[in-house]
């Protein structure tokens, strides 16, 4: 079993994609919250609020680095391990990924560089606008990736010519309900993640009694509010996807009905069971939020958000659950698609590159290992900076230069 | 449509080599140009905000290959798995080094990530040399041309990095970098040596590829090599870094052109549906792409300041 390259390629994809998604969900959710915070700080010209933006922005930037690194692993992995998919569906599946890299990530990363570098060097409104671009393009990134992913689940807009899929209807590809609903669900659930992260970290500091200039009191409120706003839209858009489980409209154009039935009858091993487990994790986590968030909202007018110790113990656990729910959701989506890589057109076994077992294992060890090490370091740093608070954070202002001590002053 | 797409891809790659050549090359030079802890820290400042804007060119190029030229991906990438695995691994660890180095203030931590930056940068440059050898050799790595191409490309990266470092490592106004002035001088001096090394390495690589019987369209590819050598010659005699920045840029930009023209690439016509989607979706973002790149580039043209996120 372990000399099967398919197994290694799938395991590698699942582990690295799951890691990637946790950082991406944090990015998407926090970007929106930071944008609002920075807007309010700039509007009031309030230094205390700006210090808070520096704190959250520092966490954001540390997280973003790992989002990019794990994304690079994903991209090359698609090229190296999933050649069968590329050979047949490359033109269709690859086109939205090309748009993502050219039109979204290109701008996102450049402007994030500007934002990090532009502290104290840029007009504050320009600096705010730069982060506006970062936020917008982060969501644009997610949209285009999900167009590619939605195609795998509900393939539309193409024709088979000489055994190769050709994109005939770009509009159908982009308005694929499987992509639009997934985007709505990913965006709302990312806001849930962002809100709970901000609330959880703030609650931790309130419990410890440190609240420089009220930033964590504002943080816990803003976080709870955003998470509560996202609470119902999340399952509303997500639940709408249950309706997409019928055969895709293009079913039967590549493989005959009988062939499809034969493949599906052969089953997908343990995948369906694990998929249902993923679904259960997601829904269960949401149920916890459903029970908990109204209590937090009630505590607000009672001034309990700042004072109730038990609340401040529970809140920091919530972001962990939200990330767990996200990974559960992906396990559900991806494993639920098995045995198909492109539903009713190509099986996962056909999608994989013909790798030698040795190479498959090497690639697995190298990239899954690197992902795990780097993700572990990044999480450790995130927790460390989150606990340390605004003092000495990654984006904290530079200490004033200690004039003339170490540096010789040339007076001649 | 087809030639527009090919030009777009070559343009993205040229942008990558010209812009990322600076930060990759300076990373390769680190053990030589930055010896004290303060100098190493400053070298990371010099590279760090900048690499965010330079590597996106490669990410975009990879995306365009995947979306518009999947055959190319199958042919080139899948045929040389270990090479691209090495390239990605180098890229990954170098970036990790740049992102993580400044996060902790401990000498051991700095040493680990400095090493990742240096080894990663060398791996990237040498891997690109091998990729060039594969493309020019018609899909095979020959024991003759492969190492020679790798060396020649590495020298060009080093030259680009040295030219960049000669400007970026100059102490900033706030005097905070005054104790690091030696780095800028070292990089400046290196430009001349490296340009001369390139004057030897590039012609040798051309001959090696020739002997191997590679290179499809000789005249065009040779013209590319002549441009590189000319650019190098223009820098080699000068004592300082004066013209090495534009000349090294020309040399880097020619690399993907030589590969595209001289390699026997199985570039099929991109599908009109896919090409239309990419063009229509990318067009509205074009102003933001240009503004962001120019803005970032202008900001980092000045000597690196001494504090910030990355180091
Ligand atoms: C904070 C994260 C989070 C939470 C609380 C939920 N989900 Fe979810 N869910 C995701 C995060 C997520 C996700 C990771 O973002 C997925 C994976 C693919 C996608 O579109 O979103 C997903 C997928 C996903 C799918 C698509 C499966 C497929 O396409 O095969 C459905 C039907 C649902 N979810 C339904 C729900 C329902 C009914 C929820 C609440 C009761 C719920 N999700 C809570
Ligand atoms: C980022 C969150 C994602 C997670 C957690 C995730 C999870 C998974 C998992 C668990 C598998 C393995 C299935 C198996 O064992 O067979 C898988 C496979 C795969 N996924 Fe995803 N996925 C994610 C996003 C995506 C996206 C956005 C795409 C496309 C753009 C995608 C494309 C694929 C492909 C091509 C495979 C291999 C074929 C297959 O096994 O079906 N995934 N993914
Ligand atoms: C097979 C699946 C995926 C691949 C191949 C992939 C590829 C990449 C790559 C290469 C990067 C870094 C550069 C870039 O954006 O192009 C990246 C980052 C990013 N990805 Fe993915 N990705 C995948 C899944 C996802 C999913 C499911 C989402 C969101 C729902 C997503 C959203 C993002 C965002 C927002 C970034 C920016 C970095 C960050 O903000 O952390 N990606 N991805």
UniProtKB/TrEMBL annotation, chain A:
<keyword id="KW-0408">Iron</keyword>
<dbReference type="GO" id="GO:0046872">
    <property type="term" value="F:metal ion binding"/>
</dbReference>
<keyword id="KW-0472">Membrane</keyword>
<dbReference type="GO" id="GO:0019646">
    <property type="term" value="P:aerobic electron transport chain"/>
</dbReference>
<keyword id="KW-0349">Heme</keyword>
<dbReference type="InterPro" id="IPR002585">
    <property type="entry name" value="Cyt-d_ubiquinol_oxidase_su_1"/>
</dbReference>
<dbReference type="GO" id="GO:0009055">
    <property type="term" value="F:electron transfer activity"/>
</dbReference>
<protein>
    <submittedName>
        <fullName>Cytochrome ubiquinol oxidase subunit I</fullName>
    </submittedName>
</protein>
<dbReference type="Pfam" id="PF01654">
    <property type="entry name" value="Cyt_bd_oxida_I"/>
</dbReference>
<dbReference type="GO" id="GO:0016682">
    <property type="term" value="F:oxidoreductase activity, acting on diphenols and related substances as donors, oxygen as acceptor"/>
</dbReference>
<keyword id="KW-0249">Electron transport</keyword>
<keyword id="KW-0813">Transport</keyword>
<comment type="similarity">
    <text>Belongs to the cytochrome ubiquinol oxidase subunit 1 family.</text>
</comment>
<keyword id="KW-1003">Cell membrane</keyword>
<keyword id="KW-1133">Transmembrane helix</keyword>
<keyword id="KW-0812">Transmembrane</keyword>
<keyword id="KW-0479">Metal-binding</keyword>
<dbReference type="GO" id="GO:0005886">
    <property type="term" value="C:plasma membrane"/>
</dbReference>
<dbReference type="GO" id="GO:0020037">
    <property type="term" value="F:heme binding"/>
</dbReference>
<dbReference type="GO" id="GO:0070069">
    <property type="term" value="C:cytochrome complex"/>
</dbReference>
Automatic annotation (TrEMBL), chain B:
<comment type="similarity">
    <text>Belongs to the cytochrome ubiquinol oxidase subunit 2 family.</text>
</comment>
<keyword id="KW-1003">Cell membrane</keyword>
<dbReference type="Pfam" id="PF02322">
    <property type="entry name" value="Cyt_bd_oxida_II"/>
</dbReference>
<dbReference type="GO" id="GO:0005886">
    <property type="term" value="C:plasma membrane"/>
</dbReference>
<dbReference type="InterPro" id="IPR003317">
    <property type="entry name" value="Cyt-d_oxidase_su2"/>
</dbReference>
<protein>
    <submittedName>
        <fullName>Cytochrome d ubiquinol oxidase subunit II</fullName>
    </submittedName>
</protein>
<dbReference type="GO" id="GO:0070069">
    <property type="term" value="C:cytochrome complex"/>
</dbReference>
<dbReference type="GO" id="GO:0019646">
    <property type="term" value="P:aerobic electron transport chain"/>
</dbReference>
<keyword id="KW-1133">Transmembrane helix</keyword>
<keyword id="KW-0812">Transmembrane</keyword>
<dbReference type="GO" id="GO:0009055">
    <property type="term" value="F:electron transfer activity"/>
</dbReference>
<dbReference type="GO" id="GO:0016682">
    <property type="term" value="F:oxidoreductase activity, acting on diphenols and related substances as donors, oxygen as acceptor"/>
</dbReference>
<keyword id="KW-0472">Membrane</keyword>
